[in-house]
Amino acid sequence: MNLERLQLEIDGPVTRLWLNRPEVRNAFDGLMVTELRKTLFDLGTVDAVRVIVLGGRGPAFCAGGDLQWMKAAVHFNREENLREAQALADLFFTVYNSPKPIVARVQGAALGGGAGLVAACDVPVAALGTQFGFTEVRLGIIPAVISPYVVGKIGESAARELFLTGERFEAVRAAEIGLVRAAVPPEDLDAAVAGRVQELLQAGPRAIAEAKALIREVAWKRVEDVQRYTVERISDLRVSAEGQEGMRAFLEKRKPSWVP
Ligand code: COA
Fold it and tell me: Can you give the pTM of this predicted structure?
């Protein structure tokens, strides 16, 4: 796929995917949504890809939906309008549902859908000074398709405050409410991301995909409703090739085969 809105860098087991529309602070339009969704889906099917790092070129990670593009929806009929919104929803689901671990490298600003992207990623790390915000209500709209991922990360209490005020907040607050996992000085951002990547590379690739599925399955459910599922998953995984190799490697005091 020829990419106009993204850059792809392959570095052994690590793929870096850059939003590359810095002149509008990586705001996403229909083309970026399509490219990002398809690229992330395709990367999810490649065994050699072990970790994806999502970043933004230029001064900001992502300024959310392209407001020119969103405004133009007034010319769509209801069907077209729904189709575009569905494509956006599919993008966030593709990030969330990827079998690969996705680290977000966040700097400058992550607003609206940009903050939603952060929420859908697994391990977001932000530079101190980054501004976050669910600014939609200040534009007369709402953070609709991102809300399941955001509420899942920050909970209803913080969502009520931040979705309703639309106020901007800083990386330290984003870390406190669980939107990002860490807030580090800007000069340490790449080292912090590299550290997270190294930790993820220690884990079995199938185990990572299964762990992500496990979280999706058990979140917000009653223990009784998910216990059978958890019993089946551990039974399957402990007899899998990867599970056997991981346990054998520990007992033999060596690294498992998947550690580079
Ligand atoms: N959609 C379309 N264009 C956007 C945009 C968006 N979401 N965010 C920024 N841009 C454009 C600006 O209009 C400006 O265009 P111009 O050069 O033609 O004037 C350009 O990107 C640079 O923006 P600017 O505000 O000058 O850059 P900055 O570095 O000072 O600030 C932001 C960056 C992201 C903090 C600021 O642009 C901003 O707050 N954007 C709005 C984000 C928002 O509310 N998003 C929610 C969407 S649902």
Answer: 0.96
